[in-house]
Batch of 2 targets.
Target 1
Amino acid sequence: MASALALSACSGGGPTQTVGTCEGGSGKETAGENLLKNPGFENGTDPWITLEPASGFVVSWEQAHSGASSALLKMRDPAGASGAKVYYLVQEMNPAQFPDVLEGYYCVENWNKGTIRQYLQFVVIAIGPDNFPTTAANFQLRYILAGIDSPPFPINNARFIFITKEEPATGNWVHFSANIKEDFERLWGAAPAGYEKLRLLFEVRWDGKAAGDGAPEADVYYDDLYTGLPVGEDP
Ligand SMILES: [Ca+2]
């Protein structure tokens, strides 16, 4: 299975497919090394970054899948806004081997859909892989978590994968996972190698908005993010 999704109440936490509260829960068990640092946002913001200071993330103590804190993307835009806007939670890395899986949890509150292409996604970008054509500087997988049911725009160096085509559940921690290595092999013909770096992005965003559409609003929490070997496998 290329991807999976499971729900649990935001007001709890715990392993995949259990119900709990947003305010607490147990951490997830992983056997492999997590290539993401500070994956549960218990140690401030570093080394997470945003690509746009005006629409970055904050560490929040309002909700947590495990521990005391999580990353919050707080979307508040006026009806008059137009074009596109991305709220970014990003980490870059340069592992020797391309990771097998990526997974984590999100929790959405206050989902007011201000425009039709308002959605959650995570993105895996391989920058400068030496086993890919030189037709693009980077190659991407864009995983739609919720909010849209078709690609939001054409993009030659990306492939879209729909984990759901539904609106996001609100008030629940939602587990998501994908085998990013298999998906690169299936959709691009190979897992990236010899790259300059990998960039992993966790987003809420809107695209193709006209002024006069509604006012996009959402509080999106991410927590307990992981990339590496499949969970439960020894290194
Ligand atoms: Ca946490």
Target 2
Amino acid sequence: METTYGLTKESQVGRCSFCDKPDDQVIVLINAIKVPKVSICNECVDMCNEMVMETIRSRRKPRPSSPTP
Ligand SMILES: [Zn+2]
């Protein structure tokens, strides 16, 4: 029995763990480094980036009083 790694798309098809799109429907699919079978696609990365930016913006604290020494 011969096993070929990386060539059998059927068994090696990656999917975004967030939106469940297969890797051939996205531009980039990034695999989690430490967690097997967990990936995120570029679209979800974009979405996460937006959410992070939104969160940062909404959490922006009122300017603290300038530290005067
Ligand atoms: Zn995705």
